[in-house]
Amino acid sequence: MEITYEWDCRTVEVNYEQEGESNVVYLIHWSLDGVSTEINEDGNPHTVSIAGSKEIPLNSDTEFVAFEDLTNEILTSWTKEAMGEEQVAELENSIKWQMDDIITPKSYTAIIGGSEL
């Protein structure tokens, strides 16, 4: 099974002005979808999603990117950089673990005294 990881970092919190710059992104709301090559009973790929937010510091060592020039790719790279490689790997591993459990469950929920399984 292969998993494709798709980031969506297009929802942001913005300061009108910060350190002499206008429309400065300071918080990115991200979601990460893992899409499996395995197909479910409905004929669709299995998907697992997680989401969160990451504060983005204004970095004086890099060139400022104007708000109107921002793309999902730029925002994703900022988010991943702010998280660090270890946290990004942990998120991807969490998706993989959840995907494995969906495709090959290792446990189930039952009600004792209920109908037979």
Description:
The protein is an alpha+beta fold. The chain contains two helices and three strands; from the N terminus they run βββαα. The chain has helices spanning 72-83, 85-103; strands at 3-18, 21-39, 45-55. A three-stranded antiparallel beta sheet has the order 1-2-3, covered by helices on one side. A hairpin with a 5-residue loop joins β2 (21-39) and β3 (45-55). The longest helix is centred in the C-terminal third of the chain and has 19 residues, at 85-103. The relative contact order is 0.21.
Strand content: 35-45%
Oligomeric state of the chains? single chain
Approximate helicity band: 25-40%
What is the overall number of helices? Answer: 2
User: Unreliable stretches, pLDDT < 50, 5 or more residues?
Assistant: none
State mean pLDDT (0 to 100 scale).
Answer: 93
One letter per element, helices H and strands E, the order comes to EEEHH
Total beta strand runs: 3
Straight-line N-to-C gap: 29 Å
Largest sheet, strands/sense/barrel = 3 strands, antiparallel
* Envelope shape: elongated
Strand order of the largest sheet: 1-2-3
